[in-house]
Amino acid sequence: MRYSFIIPVYNRPDELRELLESITLQQLNDYEVIVIEDGSSLTSEAVIHDFTPTIHSLHYHQVPNGGPSRARNIGVGYATGDYIIILDSDVVLPTGYLQAVDTALRGQIIDAFGGPDAASDDFTPIQKAINYAMTSPLTTGGIRGGSASAMEQFKPRSFNLGCRRELYLHLGGFDESLRFGEDIDFSLRLIKAGAKTALIPEAFVYHKRRVDFRRFFKQVHNSGIARIHLETRHPGSTHLVHLLPALFTIFSVLALCSGVGIGLLILLGAVFFVDAYLRTRDREVALLAVPACFIQLWGYGSGFLRAWWRKYVMRGKEFTAFHDNFYD
């Protein structure tokens, strides 16, 4: 077996069904699928039963709830493939995904890899807007993949992360004490170990992100907090692209309080709208992309500033602001 798909799932059988359906449509069939049910009250047993006849090597394990990092590590422990591919349950694979991965790996030596996230035509407008906010170079500097001009070296994310199985096991997998930023921690450990990581642009996934703006703020706020935790574990890993949302958040507060600079915020909103429209050709998505981009910047920036203040000024312990659902 060359590839092992590892899928942690928590109370999302319908999402898992869509993902498994997309796996059955892959052009390459040299894979196994390992689903780890992480203490769900709404299980995926019926879904697994439906796909057992069509996926020749489908394995399903129910474990007590311990978070996605632990579920991924458990899944890799069951894997037999040369490479493991970790996916979030809210992604869907295009038919050429695995073939693109296989072509890239046969063409060069790669230890770990990832691909971009994209929005499919059937996404809701808010899903498309959030996808734009999370992938646009205007907001994230292109660091989530797919941008040739990314502001820092590409690091695979856990929604679409592949690695040599033996290397994953050698590094100990994901740090189960981290609730957010655990994939970046793993990528940083990969790089420190001398592993060759690569972005495979053709190995993109459709990332549904079933969140509204409120939950999106929580998600990116926690990501900002995680950046400070990552700097503690990996000194020097924080770069300009991580500081910009915090600086922008400070500027926004000063502008809104003083009235000076509000015009620049309005201008930036117009830039978001125009760029989103040019990318999507959808006015509704472009309009929703404006608040999505500001939420992405303010959420990440405020989380970064809170964690920075707690660690360096108050000398407090690490914390995570929102605990409600680590699978969003």
Précis, in short:
By secondary structure, the chain is of the alpha/beta class.
Describe the protein's architecture and organization.
This protein is α/β, with parallel strands linked by helices and 328 residues long. Helices cover 50% and strands 13% of the residues. It has twelve helices and ten strands. The strands form two sheets. A seven-stranded mixed sheet has the order 3-2-1-4-8-6-9, with helices on both faces. A three-stranded mixed sheet has the order 5-10-7. Helix 1 links the parallel strand 1 and strand 2 (31-38).
Low-confidence stretches: none
Derived structural class: alpha/beta
Strand content: 5-15%
Report the count of strand segments: 10
Tally the helices: 12
- How large is the radius of gyration? 20 Å
Order of strands in the sheet with most strands? 3-2-1-4-8-6-9
User: What composes the largest sheet?
Assistant: 7 strands, mixed
The succession of helices and strands, N to C, reads EHEHEHEEHEEHHEHHEEHHHH
Straight-line N-to-C gap: 31 Å
Q: What is the oligomeric state here? A: single chain
